[in-house]
Design the sequence.
């Protein structure tokens, strides 16, 4: 039977497309392609996190504070390869963190706001321990 096998893209409006692209490139290190976006090859994340790389799809109850201080009804989670390096990059760019970074059994997390007021969750997966 046919089913969804993954997220094929994230598309959104922004006030200044070029400024938004430049911010994501400068601050988060996205490589912007000839079409004006960025493609993430699943093989790249799987090579670094063979068991931990995944895309999460999760509806949140209306009114949840998890996306605050953004007023958007969605948040973008971006997988990163070097948590400490990203925190240093954000600091060097003068980007204000939203809350404190968090380390959980399934990954390391930090949050920032993009130029259009969307909350961005940065996530470095943690490889699960093999079953004993």
Sequence:
């Amino acid at each position: 039977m046919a089913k969804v096998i993954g997220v094929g893209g994230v598309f959104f409006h922004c006030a200044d497309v070029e400024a938004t692209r430049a911010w994501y490139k400068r601050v988060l290190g996205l490589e912007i392609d000839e079409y004006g976006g960025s493609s993430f090859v699943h093989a790249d994340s799987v090579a670094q996190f063979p068991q931990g790389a995944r895309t999460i799809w999760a509806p949140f109850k209306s009114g949840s504070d998890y996306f605050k201080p953004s007023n958007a009804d969605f948040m973008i989670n971006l997988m990163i390869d070097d948590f400490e390096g990203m925190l240093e990059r954000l600091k060097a760019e003068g980007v204000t963190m939203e809350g404190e970074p968090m380390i959980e059994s399934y990954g390391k997390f930090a949050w920032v706001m993009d130029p259009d007021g969307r909350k961005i969750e940065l996530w470095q997966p943690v490889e699960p321990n093999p079953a004993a």
Summary: The radius of gyration is 16 Å. The helical segments are 17-28, 42-48, 83-92. The mean pLDDT is 92. DSSP finds three helices and four strands in the chain.
